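Example A, followed by Example B.
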Amino acid sequence: MSELMDTVRAGHKGQTVRLLDTMTDAERRAHMPELKALRKELRATRWDAPGRRAYPSLYVAGIVCQTGASAVAAWIAASDMRWPSTSPALLLRLLGDRPAEWLGDLAQRLAQRPVSSGVSYPLMSGLVRLAGCPVPTTEAYVRGWVDDLEVNRERGGTLLDRLRSDPHLEPMVGALFETNDIGGRLIWSADKGPDGWIGALALVCAEGRLDRKVVVDACVARLLRGGTTADSRAFLSLLTALDLTREERRERVGDWQGLASDAPSTVAAHAQSVLGELALAGELPPRQLAEMSEAVLFRAEKKLVRAQLVLLGKALARDGSAADTLLPAVAHGFGHQDPDVQERSLKLAERHLRKVTDPGVRADLVLASEQLHTGLRSRAADLLGSAPAAPEPEAHEEILPPFPEPTRLAPPPATAAEAAEEIGAALAAQPSVAEFERALDGLVRLAHQDREGLSQALEPVFARCWWDGAGQGDARSAESRFLRSGGGVYRASDGLEIPLAALRGSIRTGHLLKAVRESGTHRGCQHRPLAEVFEARLWEVAYRIRTEPLPFLLSTPSWSTGLLEPDELVDRLDAYRRLGARVAETDFAQALLRVRRADPVRAAAAAERAAALGTAEGARLAAWLTAETPWPTSKRRTHATRLLIDHGEVADLRDDSFPAAFRLLGEPMDAGRDWYCYHDTGLLRQWPALMPERRELTAARMVRDMAALALHDVRGTGAVLPQLAECGGEAGEATHLCLAYGLGARHPEDRLAAVDALLTLAADDRLSAERLGTEIRLLTRTGALKPARLAESLRTAAATGAYRTVWEVLGHALPPLLAGLAFAGTPMRGLGDLVGVAAECAERCGARGELPHLDQAADRRGSSLLVTQARRLRDTLALPGTPSQ
């Protein structure tokens, strides 16, 4: 081995540099094969191995010994080379004798690397300086430039001073406007003066170091392009700091109109104020003001819409001759979802209608007035001299999405390669029920048919598993991790790793047997019985892979919901009988919980076939298929601001023929007990498939999770709600309570999942509007649910066409909430939004009659949202006619 390689291996970076300085280019190139071999060797060693000390020397040697700019750039930016600490000054000295063209090429290649590569900005800028080449304007270089100017205080002075002395100021500032998601770096400091980016950029423009028009145009173009909230704030702050003149504002009327129409609300408000100033100064023609108003009045932000109506009112008061042009724009407010905006628009039309000279404008207003809510239509008819719309409601047709059809599981993987691919995909992301079950069944089948071939096909999968360590797995480490907390299955992918680790030999047989025997002996959170059932089958499958492989799983579901067809289970038991295979106790128990019993005819036919098998499992299946399903007693309890569900013993699940883990499902549940819970959202999504025809038992153990969606900053758990809705069995108190919590969840994606579940239950005729309305009312009064979130969820559900369904829910939820207004001076925040959804649904589905306590809200003084919406709802319910069915 050469002296250089000995020095690199020893980690003597200084000596490595001295040796490299004495070599010719040819001598350096000759060492590259050995350096690459050492790099490959270090990759295969453990992270904490002594060989890691060689990396800094290897990093330097590899850079210097290569001649191609592409190869050097790849070496510098390689992921395994990021951590060695080598100063950019040293690298620049070692590379400084290369041709300027080569240095410029290297600088450009490094700058084109993604930011995540972590290439040093001082290195890139030093190469640019040595090469004398144009400065790169890539994202990595721009971000490095911004960070360097902020933290490099060695040059002294303020940020403004450092910008003044920068030789590449103009191209770098131009590139700043083209860099995505840079706004957060520009507004990091509240300093608007010379030591903050906004103030410093405005000052260099004022000093003439940058072309002001170019910067203003770039600011406006960036705002028109859109981006993150931070980008909008930063570039709007810069545009404001530039303090545009009246002439500069007038030159960009089209840009302001575009921003007022489509930009985020803060940017749109600025554009609106600029256009408003021009309009009131007579510098914006009425036609352009009308075009801008039509776009703004279409927006959902009430503040922007109301400000636009105020602007239109001032413009009409200033120039009455513009009424023919501006009043049709005002009429766009008639169709706004906020009834207050509708009323303001109508009042504005009332005030200025006499100024209209064109008969066609009045006809347009009559047509637009049909969009007004019921309470304003007669008022508009009196104003416009038109006949009011017929009060008789049209027949309403409720539109519900079809109940989602479950999908059949695809056939199991036929080869070891296919099984390895399924398993690898399931480990890479949190798998669905179908993906998990197919991967597990494929693992079991191929471990029985071709254990050696499966192990070979799984080598790439094993290499990515923490417990394997490239074939150097530590059994004790894996056991301590998997057996922690009575199973250690935090995520669905963890569960799949248990039989994988058993196949690999990373868990000893004795510990597998111990885990099997201890299944069902642990206690913990409300999920523990579900978790024990999920884990117990995996431990027994893992133990059988080691000792007596199963030919296939009995419990693999037929459908994506977890449901197993009874005739398929009988066929599998018959195959076991013919093969002489011993049934796994937990696998058979899981199959019993999944088998379809809701169809008595099919269940009876399958029971007869099962009894004819002449096996103990066949007799057990026959008895199970023909037995009645007992229903446990339940009791509600209040825990802090939460409503929870206790349930009593489930008799058939306490039968001694079930394994201990499965008998936990039949134990009485005390929902008030607080336990630390570590279960991941992806694991929760596996549990509805454990008992697909006993939805309530699963829902009762998930009520606390759904409560956390509304009460705490928990995200993602609501994804299980559509699965619960697709399950079979009764949808009782627990299901409706979970649904109510989901509708009031903190995060939009969880609320949307709850809406999907609501519509699914309604399509299956399992939704009780009275029960859901009662849960919403109770949870809202305890403060667990916020009415504004509920209103958004229910409005989304109604918009699909389910207006009568949502109206019936609110018809049960609102009266007790409105009754409290007689005793409380201030209504709860967001109640007006809920009443507004009810009013819209009542109008759409033709609801008539009385809503208790509605008058208490409608007769209040003022024009708050609650009052206006209550009056709208009362007027709708008081219309003559028979409500549609």
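Example B, a separate protein, is given below in the same form.
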Amino acid sequence: MSTHLPSLAAPAQGNPTLEKKLDRKWIASLFERGAPTTYLKSRKELDYIGMPVGGIGCGTLYLGGDGRLWLWDVFNKNQTGVIYKNVKWHEKIQFNYDFLRPFDGANYVEPVKDIRPLDQGFAIRIEHDGKTIMKRLQADDWDEVSFEATYPMATVRYVDKTVPLSITLRAYSPFIPLNADDSGLPVTILSFTVENKTASHATITLAGWLENKASIYSANNEEYYRVNEAVRDAAFSGVMASSNSYNWADETFTSAGDFGNFFLASFNANTKVNTDASPDLTAPLFDSENATAAKIEQRKALATVSNTTTVPPGGRVELNYAVAWYFPNLSFDLLKKEGGRYYANTFKSSRQVASYVHANFERLSSETKSWCDAWYEQSTLPYWFLERTFLNISTLATTTVHRFQSGRFYAWEGVGSCPGTCNHVWQYAQAVARIFPSLERDTRERVDLGVAFHDDGHIGFRGEYDTQPAIDGQAGRILGIYREHQMSADNSFLKRQWPKTKHALQYLLAQDTNGDGMTDTQLENTLDAKWPGEIAWIVGLTLAAVKAGQRMAEEMNDEPFAATCKRYVTLGAANMEKHLFNGEYFIHRPDAQKGRTVIGSYNTCHIDQVYGQSWAHQVGLGRVLDKTKTIFALKALWKYNFTTDVGPYLKEHHGGRPYALPGEGGMIMNTNPRNEEVPYGVKDAWQVTYFHECMTGFEHQVASHMMAEGMTEESLILTRAIHDRYHAAKRNPFNEVECSDHYARAMASYGTFITACGFTYHGPTGSIGFHPKLTPHNFKAAFTAAEGWGTYAQEKKGKQQVHQLELKYGRLMLRSIQLERADKAKDLTVTLDNNFVKATIEQEGTSAKISLAQAVVLEKGQRLSVVL
């Protein structure tokens, strides 16, 4: 399917956030299954595409729209932004800058493209019916190139009227949910399929090349040289590209961030290897061999691998290659004790990485393909929706994220921007905990309740980099602890963490100074200010965290503390609904003494006003806030904050960073429905500029909440507005920008998938549940659990409902299943691979709780069926 630029609505008149003028046919199209988003050369949609194709914490390597690799940020430079540049801007923004930095959206306004510090590519020679055709596999050489944007595995197709064969590239790095180590390999796999649909044989030669740029910044004069070393084996051949110094005692050189090596590998038999080659489209590229080590000084150091094979009529061949890298010298001043890159624990060179991938190729590739099949192909959800809610997890394969030899997960907020795995940003990111829960469990234990934990119970919001508390970050991390417990196989994680978790909760409770159940202490928040008073979004987020605390206390048999938490939530929710709800939406009540002399959201319509209830839906806490008032608040956000074109709004409201441009739709952070002259208390605080921006992480959070509350249409429209802002004709679809590139908060998008499925899970109790919001009569989607993943499907035929869980990976222990059911079922049948399982059913509102007589364990390939 070809995706065109968005047509959200006709230009709005009057108040741009009030008049949507949405096309009903366009809205209906959002619900359609459709096909994978495919970008085309012919529509000039390939230039900005940069899909991360490395492993977790392995740097940033982009797959371009035509299948070539680019950017190559694997050298531990840690610059801000995928590249650092300033872009001239027409108005003053934060701190009165009249230009944009990567912090401010420079790479949103002027998207990055064609950054190629080293030369890499593939070419093909075709001999067919007496003719020889030679082409590079890049856009310039083909009539059409298409890019299918299904992260983590993209498909690139090459089409030309002169080429009688079908040529397809599938590019990826191994990506296996729940397996963080095998999803953290510094490697990109490039699998080419060539099909011959003609009536005669074709002989093809596929050649790949890679320039040796090891020590790209350090080896810059005649003191250094580069070495390409050949490796030859039956089905594993290639070239290791490294650097060296004539000064044997040059420790500065070997300890530099860019010291390391690359490996260009062929996983095919009869590979020709050339350690000193040229990428010109001539016979030497395809046929030359030089298997000796080449020592290359002060000139381009290119290596090639090539394979020749015959494709019979109606036949097909697959040729597999990989590019691996090894640059282990990662270092931060405050984190030296953590060691270098995590992959250095297992591998000592890129050759070892490539060798491991080759030895395990069938498993790594099949499990990656199995996930892609479960996520995209088997689902009934719209392709575009599956793409946008999932692709932000590619942030893990960028330099936003690092993983040290100690095993510690560490991250910026965005690429090179704002250190310390900032808890008030990362707590929005729902994706990692569901796909790689071990990383989040370790971060809660090692960082939040480890190096960032203080004697009074507060969690330093940037670990070693800023030890003060952030009120929203504290609440979010407590909710995260509960989520990580749910995504565990047993309760050992919570048992270890409970004493400190309880202390963190007690600190949170103490921030309510007047005992009304509403946090009112002036502490740091994610909008980089300390707001006084009682702030709906912080009060509600605290209530959700304390309710999670109640659940954890109950599981830990701490009944007195559970009762304390329950009383606090009951009191706080009642007061929040009474005092902070203005009849239309929730507000910020000023501090009694300070009034509105300090920055705050006050009577404005703030994007996060019911964020606590949104979080509650992510972890199955049920209601924290009254449903009617919550929906009123979400409808107010839709009415006042969402616009199909931000242009008219930005004409009147200046200073915000341009994360959405005129002609693009989005949800404004704060609007002023009461038309107050000084709505934010002050005029001159630089943080006021945040209120006029569209930041995708916040938008995704609202979309996930709307989906949970039954505002399905609004949720899809908001998500699609983001998806269309990141259309490849405009900018990189895989890089949602906030304060720098690949911003962590954007991983809130996965939360919308969770609520679309109505997914709940509690690993230690063996409980799982589904309540789909889209096509519940015929629904199928992927799910992940503590030890396994697979697909869930439900189908309604009259009064009969059929529900099926099929495991694709690992194992799944179950004791109970919560399913959607409007009325009480008369009959129940549960089978595991056609073997009957004893079970009982209990109706709870619109849900049916299926309790199994004894726990069952699904293994890979098994299917549990429930017929109501």
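On Example B: The CA atoms of residues 485 and 494 lie 6 Å apart.
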